[in-house]
Amino acid sequence: MCGSLNKGIAQSGVEPALISDKNTGLRVAEILCLPKENVTECIRVIRALSPDELLAAQQAIKGQEPLIEISQGVLKGFVLQNRDGGTFYGFRKIPYAQPPINDLRFKAPVPADGWEGIRDATTEMPACTQFSTGYSSIISGQEDCLYLNVFIPELPSENSTKKPVMVYIHGGGFYSGDGTDLLAGPAFLMTKEVILVSIHYRLGVFGFINFDDPELGVPGNAGMKDQVLALKWIKENIADFGGDPDNVLIFGTSAGSISVHLHMISPMSTGLFNKVIGQSGVALFPTLISARNTGVILAEYLGLQTANLTETLRSLREISAVDLSTMESSIQPDNYFFATPNIELSSDEEAFLTRRPLDILLEGDYNHVSLLTGINNLEGLLMEATELEQTGQSILIEDFTEFIPHDLEIAAGSEEEKKL
Questions:
Q1: Which residues lie below 8 Å from residue 327, measured CB to CB, with a gap of 6+?
Q2: What is the pLDDT of residue 286?
Q3: Are 168 and 184 in contact (CB under 8 A)?
Q4: Phi and psi (nearest 5°) for 152?
Q5: pTM of the entire predicted model
Q6: Domain extents for the chain?
Q7: For residue 97, what is the DSSP state?
Q8: Where on the tree of life does the source sit, at the highest rank (predicted)?
């Protein structure tokens, strides 16, 4: 329908300023209250409009939010200002997966459904359920959080050159953080000719709990699989925003940096990106890989029975997200990487990670794409600030052998350790 309307509008002379070419007809018809269901009649009415009427329509359109049509439906975005005072466009809280609640809690994500009509994409996406550490734990976010934001410097047209895509994956130790404007605002990058996408993924026990029993369908890494599904969504839809699906760079900080490195070594992520920037974190992080069967560990901590794991899983799904996150905050101080990416056991489900990252890299069995990685000259300053806040004292490193990578398998107290 839109294609026919676009042709009719082009012949009529109207030049709407805030509409993707693909959706021009839909938006003009909506603004002018024309019969969109009858394309022939709609085009006839548009052609009969006077120049003044067309100008009025154009001015009305300029006061409206931009529309872009993707595979799921039509999105209504909004206009923003970049750091240099220029204009760019945002489309927020776009669902890429179904809400991971009830029976989908702890499971791999399921692609989101489409919608009828026009979806309002002007409100910020919610953070995923998480707790913050400090003197007291604060629970925030929600389980229904698998959304992404897209920011574009200009609306696409038939003559537009496809723009490179940058996908930001936030950090936070895999148990906190978000990709909202507060921490990852688009104002700077939108001074460049790129498209920016920021994604949310499940955190803590919601994204990284695992059960060894394959019958339960919870092998772990649900949070990483969220990221994979988001990358698939981008691959399938970013062209509608003027992006190049074959020129995608993924980047992140801290746990986000670890994530992008893990995507390099995961077969599940093959073909979904072309470049990587990792800021302060790699998949070889010494204590990254979580324990096995953490679902059982969590259940035992909560006092749940573990003789029948099907019932155990059902009980865990019945606990409220706030209560579950509160319990996790009690476990986490003594088990910092209790709920993080894990090596999955063999099952019928597609796995994200089945071997140690070091082994994969040594064997060369990974996605060979360009990688830019680095650290800051004051790495760890956040840890220092947290320690000062909680104890009033600075961190004192008394035993530097604690920083020898575990993967080197150097025995404690050995001559090799002393040399290092």
A1: 298, 301, 302, 319
A2: 66
A3: yes
A4: -130, 140
A5: 0.83
A6: 2-64, 73-374, 381-419
A7: B
A8: Eukaryota
